[in-house]
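[[Encoded backbone]]
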Amino acid sequence: MYGVFNGVRLSRIVSIVSVPAMDGSELCTFHAIERSTELESELRLGEAGLLILATRAFEGKIVAYAGDSQNGFDVTLELKGARS
């Protein structure tokens, strides 16, 4: 799957999971396999994150990430407007 995260083109998004959290917010986690350090430079906890896909966009705050440019990245966003 293709997409863009904070202006960085992603050509290998292999999974996206969106689940409700206990506090009423919604969390979206995606896994991207990218062989570039460009994505890594966009990952800062607490900063804004925008994932744009062909059919949907996910906008929120980066609350977790892990990985590297060799194995891929898991990024979790707390989505905007998801809290009640």
User: Anything to note?
Assistant: The two ends are 31 Å apart (CA to CA). The chain has one domain: 3-79. The mean pLDDT is 90. Residues 16 and 30 are 4 Å apart (CA to CA).
